[in-house]
Amino acid sequence: MADRSEGQKRIQARGSRLSAQEEAAELDRLIRLYVYGRFLEDARPPTVEQTAEALQATSAAVTLAYERLARQRVLVLEEGGREIRMAMPFSAVETPFEVRAIERKWYANCAWDALGIPAMLNCDARIITRCGDCGEPVTLAVMDGEVVGGKEVIHFAVPALRWWEDIVFT
Amino acid sequence: MGRGAVLSLERAWELAVAWYHDRMRSDWRRKKRTEVQELFARLGLTSRFWSLEEPE
Fold first, then answer.
1. Residues in A 74-133 with any Cβ partner in B closer than 8 A
2. Mean pLDDT of chain A
3. Residues of chain B numbered 27-56 and touching chain A (CB < 8 Å)
């Protein structure tokens, strides 16, 4: 009997751990959707406090969720901070990759992410950037699901395997 | 490898669509490495630059 009792305790303990994991995963999912929704509307991410208030969670719980999402490479947090720097393809800071669509303006993290915004939103867009080679202004357009430009190319400097070693640089 | 990879605008757009089209869906999940490699391969990105395997 003693063994069964210990076994039941272990199962219960495992069950409660699983439940906590599931709860964390659900909070992470809700926070991810909220962050992207705010980025979409405001062109900037919500602070920890704003997310906590919106989701009726504590700041500590949101901070932990942001950290989990950063470890899962869903978000990038400010270096040494707790707030969001990137929710790819959106950037929280001004960059040379401006994207205008549906009467809004966002900054993307790189040229590929600039295309990623209309790809994600399934909308037409204008991308305003500069040639990485000569510095001349370049405007690209996405219309009806196709990209319209001249003979521009996009340069990827960092091999795919190394993208996350320094994602801000990448 | 040092100079990176260059994609045409059209190919970069295809990659952006494949990568980001479902990012705001509630059931989105991060792609596994094998799925990313398959996605690259579908788009013809098969050079060493796009490999997610550590070189031997």
1. 74, 88-89, 111-113, 115-117, 119-122
2. 86
3. 28, 30, 36, 40, 48-54
CB B15 within 8 A of CB B45: yes
- Highest mean pLDDT: which range of A4-18, A29-43, A130-144: A29-43
Most confident of A10-14, A55-59, A136-140, B42-46: A55-59
Q: Which residue of B has its CA nearest to A111?
A: B12
pLDDT at A105 over 90: yes
ipTM confidence score: 0.89
Cα–Cα distance, A113 to A108 (Å, whole number) = 5
- The count of residues in chain B is 56
Q: What is the pLDDT of residue A2?
A: 43
Domain A90-164, CATH number (from 3.90.550.10, 3.10.450.700, 3.40.1390.10, 3.15.10.60): 3.15.10.60
A104-108 and A90-91 beta bridge pairing = antiparallel
- The answer to whether the peptide bond before residue A46 is cis (omega within 30 degrees of 0) is no
Nearest chain A CA: its distance from B1 CA (Å): 8
